[in-house]
Every structure is written in structure tokens, then in C-alpha cells.
Amino acid sequence: MPCGLDGAIDMLSLKNSQTSSPNNSTTSRPTSKLTPKAPEGNPYYEIRAIPDKGYGCFALKDIKRGTRILTDKPLLIVPKPDYLLEDIEEAAKKLSPEELELYFSLSSSHGQDPTKWPSRVHASVQGRELQRIREQHLARISPTTSLTSIFQTNCMEMGLSAAVFPHASRINHSCNPNCNFTWNALLALETVHAIADIPAGAELTFSYCDMTKEKTLRAWELKHYGFSCDCRACAGDGGDPESFAHQSAERRFRIHELDRATKVLRGARLGEGARTPGFVNQLLELAQLHREEGDYSIRLARIYLDLALVCEIASDWKNGVECAANAVKVKRECQGADSPDYDKYEDVLRRIYLKSKAAMS
Ligand SMILES: C[S@@+](CC[C@H](N)C(=O)[O-])C[C@H]1O[C@@H](n2cnc3c(N)ncnc32)[C@H](O)[C@@H]1O
């Protein structure tokens, strides 16, 4: 294996499976000319071309927070998150010619400038991980669309697998999104919910990265998709401390501080958390920050659930019921009442409510 003097491996000297694939006919080919459309009968959105973004999805009417805007069946499933080209090729063999055409009509972030990317990988990175990094790099800088370039531009987590969804894939990114996507294993469908009230004409967006991370980390993750984000959380703050960008950066910084401070006491050690001074206030502040940031997601639902459980331990029934009710509401609105675990949220609310009634009698 060629290795630089500094112990780094040159990525481009290691070309392999992109060119030696046994299934080259599907590995690389021109982009399809299919025009994307919202699913037939979907009343919520239409697809339009946007300068510099390809296509995007736009609300046809006012959409209330909690609305399920879309359910989508996977088009191509790769049953491992650390996929290689050979895994995508294997999955692509199961596609009909029409499905393959649809796959190749999706967005592809190939054609990127190689000088904007590190050209070397540390020598300690070996085997499958090295091959994966190399394949993805080659797909990114290649002048043509490929199975890998489309997969890495569009794939979403599907439990322990990764999959491409033909309709959900048309939704563009924002670090301050108005939609949430979740794999619903019970329905075997990807679901997209509005996490804000969306006015008619607005673009539907969700976050491709962990939106609570700070701007430079988000920018690095988004670079893999070949764009830099200009959403209101990423826009410059113009030196104005009142601007959304400035306040958002401060909120996300504080969210990280609070996450670090509370992480060890959440989950199995919640009982200890309940006895730790300041823990409840930290969780309350965290919930407030997520709300202000518009992160009306499962993260917020879990914070409320933990608050409810801490209140239950402390026999604080009034706040317990309120927090459990918030947890159920956020969970339902961002993932749906038919989502896995929803019953668990409702059970906590019911239990604390009954205990509060018993305590009053
Ligand atoms: C999953 S696709 C989204 C749909 C895509 N626009 C299309 O035409 O099918 C991801 C690609 O869309 C574009 N994109 C998504 N969000 C964007 C944003 N906020 N700004 C610029 N381009 C964006 C990038 O080209 C990215 O690689």
C-alpha cells in the first residue's frame, strides 16, 4: 500500500472499485432526465427547481406543526451503515430498470473540487474503513454520477441500515428546519412531519446534520453534500447580537454545555440525577433552548420525558404530569402516534397522572 513519508496514504493513488467494478453499467452513468414530482395525491407540497439547489419541495398550503406531510418507501436499501460500493451494487441488482432510472434521477454531489478535500488518509486507517473513505472521495470528485455519489447524497438511516427514499430525498437542508424525518419500523416507511407551522409557499427543509452542533462542524458535515448552508442560523450575524444567527450560535453552545453536564445522569442513572442539585433546572433550560432553536424533535421529547420521570421520583405530580404531557405531544407531533415507543410515552403520562390523582385523594 503506498504510504507517504508522514505516514499518510494518498487517496487518489488507491483507485480501485470505482473503475474495477464487475457491474460498471450501473456504477457510473449520465444523470436521468426524469422530472421529479410529489407523490400523486399528496396535498401538501409540490416540487420546483431552485437556482443552485437543484429541486426543492414547497408547501401548497399552510401546514400545521405535527402534520405528517409524507410517507415514503425505500427505493434502495443497503443493510449496513458503513456501506461500500459493492454493497450498493448488490442492492442495485434488485432494482427494476424503472427503479434504476428513478435512482439515477436523484441528486448527486459528484464533480467537487479535489483541492477542497484532504488528499491523504492517516496510515492507521486500514481495511474496510480506508476503502470506504477512498470510494466516497472518488465518487465526490468524479466528473460523472455514480451509484455511490447518489447514495451518499441521498441516503438516510433506516434502523441499522441505510436507504434512499425517492420522495424524501427531494427535501433540501436547513440547520433551522421546519420538518423532521424518521424511519418508522412499524410502518416500514420513512415519515416526514412538520415541526413548525409552515406557511403556504415556504420551502420544506430538514437537517442533514446534527443541527445542535456549532456552525463550523455543521459546515464540515454539509461539505460532503457539496454545498455550504446559507440558512438563517448560518448567515453572518453582521455583528448584531440581536440577530438570529448570533443568538442561535449562543444557544447551540449552551445546549452543548448542558448536554455534557446532564448526559451521565440521564438514562439508567436518572434516579441519581433527581437527587443532584441543579439537574432539573439544567434539563428545563435545555428544553427551553431547543424550543427557542425550533428543534421540536425527538431530542426535545426525550428531555421532557426525563423531566417527567425525575418529577415522578420526587413525587412532584403537578410538574410530572405537565412534562409527561409535553413529551407525548412533541413525540406525536414530530414522529406520529403510530411511531415505535409512542406507547411508552403515553404509559409514563398515564402512570404519573394516576399517581397524581391518588396523591390528591
Ligand atoms: C438530498 S438532495 C436534496 C434534493 C435536491 N436538491 C434535488 O434536486 O433532488 C441533497 C442535495 O441538494 C442540494 N441541497 C440541499 N440543501 C441545500 C442547501 N441548503 N443549499 C444548497 N444546496 C442544497 C445539494 O446539492 C445536496 O447535495
UniProtKB/TrEMBL annotation:
Positions with biased composition (Low complexity): 16-32
Protein name: SET domain-containing protein
Entry-linked PROSITE patterns: SET (PS50280)
Domain SET: 43-209
PANTHER family named in the record: SET DOMAIN-CONTAINING PROTEIN 5 (PTHR47332), SET-6 (PTHR47332:SF2)
Start and end residues of each stretch annotated as Disordered: 14-41
